[in-house]
Automatic annotation (TrEMBL):
Listed name of the protein: Sugar ABC transporter substrate-binding protein
InterPro entries named among the record's database cross-references: Bact_solute-bd_prot1 (IPR050490), SBP (IPR006059)
Top-level division of the source organism's lineage: Bacteria
Gene3D superfamilies in the cross-refs: Periplasmic binding protein-like II
Organism: Streptomyces nanshensis
Lineage: Bacteria, Bacillati, Actinomycetota, Actinomycetes, Kitasatosporales
Sorted UniProt keywords: Signal
Amino acid sequence: MRTRSRLMRTRAVIGVATANVLLASCAGAGSLATGGDTINVLMVNNPQMVELQKLTAKHFTKKTGIKVQFTTLPENDVRDKIGQDFANQAGQYDVATISNYEAPIYAKNEWLKPLDGYLKKDKDFDQKDILPPIRESLKGEDGKTYAEPFYGESSFLMYRKDVFKKKGLKMPAKPTWPQVAKLAAEADGAQKGMSGICLRGLPGWGELIAPLTTVVNTHGGTWFDENYKAKLTDPGFTKATKFYIDLVRKHGESGATQSGFAECLNNMTQGKSAMWYDATSGAGSLEAAKSPVKGKIGYAPAPTVKTKSSGWLYSWAWGLQKSSRNQDKAWKFIKWASSKEYERLVGKEFGWANVPAGKRASTYEIPEYRKTAGAFGETTRKAITEADPRNPGVQRRPTIGIQFVDIPEFSDLGTKVSQELSAAIAGRQSVDAALKKSQQLAEEISEEYEGRGR
């Protein structure tokens, strides 16, 4: 049974790879330089990582003599490729971008090298400067550190200050979800083509499920109780889901089932939504120099119902593969890419709005950053520091995680549930029918994990 369980967990992380993916992976292996003064880094292709590439040769390589060969892929693709390489301990990549979802799972499977030895020697890295929730979320069950953050984020509510003023609306300092629903109704249609709010409806455990789960948490619901008993049809989960879907159907964006983070960001930037609940990382784009809504956005904490706070916690972080043959060189790269020095370099080279923030307390003390991020910086920092991944709701959980359950199977479960709920948003089935199917999916995991909660 234990062997079967471990196999299931591994399969859930790396996915069921097709022959083409495996062949492509093997074909690429021979093209990567190994050993010597070169390390291989596999990472997600978001804008801040692209900027990292541009700075590496001129600054990191020049200073250390270590060359870095990057492979960048879209998020879904990079997760699959990292899972394949790390699960097999192939050593094709020395460093990879993983999140606080994968870090504890990979650590438990012994795919990552713990970084505590390096941290003990490199006092100037200042591990205590890493914001506590981010720092804790990247540890394994053994308490050791298995990844260092590139940036961190939580979630909050963004709203058009000018639209609210014109409509005579006031955003509470600490809004509740019922208050937000009322504001969305009143702001709906404030300008031609403007919805009251934008909420993710795009299927995906990292899309629709992320904001929805924070709503579930604060309404008193949970995916699993502390003994892994599935709770998707319980009152808290049901009430929160019906609330979310009702809100997006009545006052949300058009085409909600095709709207994820990127689409809602575009809606907010183009004046198509009066409010948006999503990742704190979206604020940088809204306040960018060429943004048409720069200076027009207000920022409020993630709405609550039964909890003191409800923002999620997420980080793209650097993990060091245990089988790497260049561990010391790889650590030097991780140290540089997560350092105070790197943040200041980005601020100087690309502007302070581009700094990969949300991970270090010292970032929020930099005058240039405080000036640039004045509208959202402190709200972001507070959202991250108040996040509690071990106790995000009103009842005990079997494992850590705010907008996810930190077990390998969740990526597949969350995606399948999101498809059912997205169909409910589209009106193809009722919420009750969607949750009944989702409960059955979750119960399959309950059978595997029963009695293994923390």
